[in-house]
Write a structure and sequence with these properties.
Helix content: 40-55%
Distance between the termini: 21 Å
Number of strands: 12
Number of helices: 8
Radius of gyration: 19 Å
CATH class of the largest domain: Alpha Beta
Largest sheet: 5 strands, parallel
Shape: elongated
C-alpha cells in the first residue's frame, strides 16, 4: 500500500505520541495539530490523505473542523471521542465523518481503521473488478453474480447482491443507512432507510454465517460486515 500523510488532531499529546508510533510503523508520515484552528491550518498546508480528528478540541471543536474539511475535500476522516453516545455518532456521520473510535482505544485498532480507509481510496484496476470476494464460508463472484455460502449456491435478487457486494468491499467499516442507500440505491432514491433494514434481514435469512463473519447492527447508525 502507498504510504500516506496522516493529519492527527488531538489536544492530548500522549495520545498523539502513541498513535504516531503505530502509524509510523505502517510507514505513514504524521502531522500533528492540538487545537481546531491549528488543524485547519495544517489541513490547508499539508493536504493530508486521511485525518484522525478528536471531537473535543480547544479554540474550535471537531464538528467545526469536520464541516470545514467537508467543504474542501472528501478525504477520509476518523473521529475520536471520549463519549460513546449515539447522538454524537449520528451527527458525525451526517456531517461527513467516515468512522468513529471511542476512547479509550487500542492504538492497533486505529491503525487498522486507517489502513482500511486508505485502501478504499485506491482506484480499482480493471482486473480487480472481476475478483472473487470471500469471507469465511462466503464466496461472491462479482463477474458472474454468483454467491456460494457454506458450499451451497444462494439465489439473491440484484439489489441484494449489490448490497452484499458493497458491504464486503467495505468490510469492518461502520456504514450508515444513508451511506448504503446512496451507494447501492443511488442518490435519486427517495424512499425510507427502512428498505435497507429489510434487505439486510433478507440477506441474513439467506446466508448462514460460519461464525467467521457477521452482518452486525450498529444501533442508531447502520451496519457493519464484520470479519
Amino acid at each position: 500500500m502507498k504510504k500516506s500523510k496522516i493529519l492527527l488532531v488531538d489536544d492530548d499529546k500522549n495520545i498523539c505520541i502513541l498513535l504516531d508510533l503505530y502509524l509510523r510503523q505502517d510507514g505513514h508520515t504524521v502531522i500533528f495539530a492540538h487545537d481546531g484552528q491549528a488543524a485547519i491550518k495544517a489541513f490547508q498546508k499539508e493536504n493530508p490523505d486521511l485525518v484522525v480528528l478528536d471531537l473535543m478540541l480547544p479554540i474550535m471543536d471537531g464538528w467545526e473542523v469536520l464541516k470545514y474539511i467537508r467543504q474542501e475535500s472528501q478525504v477520509p476522516v476518523i473521529m475520536l471521542t471520549a463519549v460513546d453516545a449515539c447522538e454524537d455518532k449520528v451527527t458525525g456521520l451526517d456531517l461527513g465523518a467516515n468512522d468513529y473510535v471511542v476512547k479509550p482505544f487500542d492504538p492497533r485498532e486505529v491503525a487498522a481503521r486507517v489502513r482500511a480507509h486508505l485502501r478504499k481510496q485506491i482506484p480499482p484496476q480493471k482486473d480487480d473488478l472481476a475478483e472473487v470476494l470471500t469471507a469465511g464460508n462466503l464466496v461472491v463472484n462479482s463477474k458472474s453474480y454468483e454467491v456460494v455460502c457454506g458450499g451451497k449456491p444462494v439465489e439473491l435478487t440484484p439489489k441484494e447482491f449489490q448490497l452484499l457486494e458493497y458491504m464486503l468491499l467495505n468490510r469492518n467499516i461502520v456504514l450508515s443507512r444513508d451511506q448504503i442507500l446512496e451507494s447501492v440505491w443511488g442518490y435519486d432514491y427517495f424512499g425510507e432507510t427502512r428498505t435497507v433494514d429489510m434487505h439486510i434481514k433478507r440477506l441474513r435469512q439467506k446466508l448462514k454465517s460460519s461464525g467467521s463473519w457477521q452482518i452486525r447492527t450498529i444501533y442508531g447508525i447502520g451496519y457493519k460486515f464484520e470479519v
